[in-house]
Design goal:
The protein contains seven helices and five strands. With 147 residues, the chain is α/β, with parallel strands linked by helices. It has a single domain (28-146), classed as Rossmann fold (3-Layer(aba) Sandwich), CATH 3.40.50.2300. It has a five-stranded parallel β-sheet with strand order 2-1-3-4-5, sandwiched between helices.
Length: 147
């Protein structure tokens, strides 16, 4: 964090009142985006991560196209991705995310582990391959270790 004098100076300057979100530039929280076809899973994951204080969930979707567009625009630090998708495009989405100009670190978060899928995800650019039943503290630790 920064000292009281810097905070006081920022709050008293015209720049703060013109741009009230300017402090977000100085606060370093890890920006996370969630991709899972099940909205309830996205919401539950977001709730688990928001309690950490250091992680900011900036969005979530179940759509591969929307995820790619949102990640390009918002440049999250981390993407949590379920690669088992009804359209079969999970690993392809992972590959596309890994080739962006400013690629996020991608953590595959899945319900069912498979050796083949773990290997394929690693080759496609996944930083971690984890099961969804992971303890919240452990998941947060994995994410914070990536940035």
């Amino acid at each position: 964090m920064f000292g009281k004098e810097i905070t006081r100076e920022l709050f008293s300057c015209d720049l703060y009142w013109a741009y009230p979100n300017i402090l977000e530039l100085f606060v370093s929280s890890t920006r996370v985006y969630i991709v899972d076809e099940h909205r309830s899973v996205c919401i539950a994951l977001a709730d688990r991560l928001e309690h950490s204080g250091d992680l900011q969930v900036i969005g979530h979707t179940g759509s591969a196209d929307e995820a790619l567009r949102d990640v390009r625009e918002s440049c999250p630090d981390i993407v949590l991705l379920e690669v088992k998708r009804s359209d079969g495009m999970g690993l392809e989405l992972l590959r596309q995310l890994s080739t962006l100009a400013k690629p996020p670190r991608v953590v595959v978060l899945t319900s069912y582990s498979s050796f083949w899928e773990r290997q394929a995800a690693s080759r496609a650019g996944a930083a971690f391959y984890l099961l969804k039943d992971i303890e919240t503290e452990e998941l947060i630790q994995h994410i914070t270790n990536l940035v």
